[in-house]
Amino acid sequence: MQVTIRLFALAKQIVGRSELPLQLPESATVADLRQELARAYPELAPLIPNLMVAIESEYADDPRAIQEGEEVALIPPVSGGVGLNPRNSQAVTSSLQTV
Asked: Name one GO molecular function term (predicted).
């Protein structure tokens, strides 16, 4: 079966596209998807173990079967936010107390 994989954030940057076509066997699972992605797109291989997979807008674990026509998305881990350091911790603490 042919599926279209939607890419976000770092995965999208690595590949340079927001969508990828991927051929999978009819009985493919998320684990099979990960293996095929690593084979077909080696530049993604280092990121694949850390990717969250969403099928039809719900996170899916490796045993989850993929059906033809379902929307599949790869979501890299997200990090960031305000770091606490001696120069800004007081400002962050003050703003949290006013919320």
From this structure: nucleotide binding
Q: How many domains does the chain have?
A: 1
What letter represents residue 53's amino acid? V
Q: Which residues contact 52 (CB under 8 A, 6 or more apart)?
A: 59, 74, 75, 76, 77
Let me know if residue 23 belongs to a domain. yes
Q: Is 7 exposed, middle or buried (0-12, 13-18, 19+ CB in 10 A)?
A: buried
Model-wide pTM > 0.90: no
95: in domain: no
pLDDT per residue as tens digits for the range 68-85: 988 999 998 876 555 444
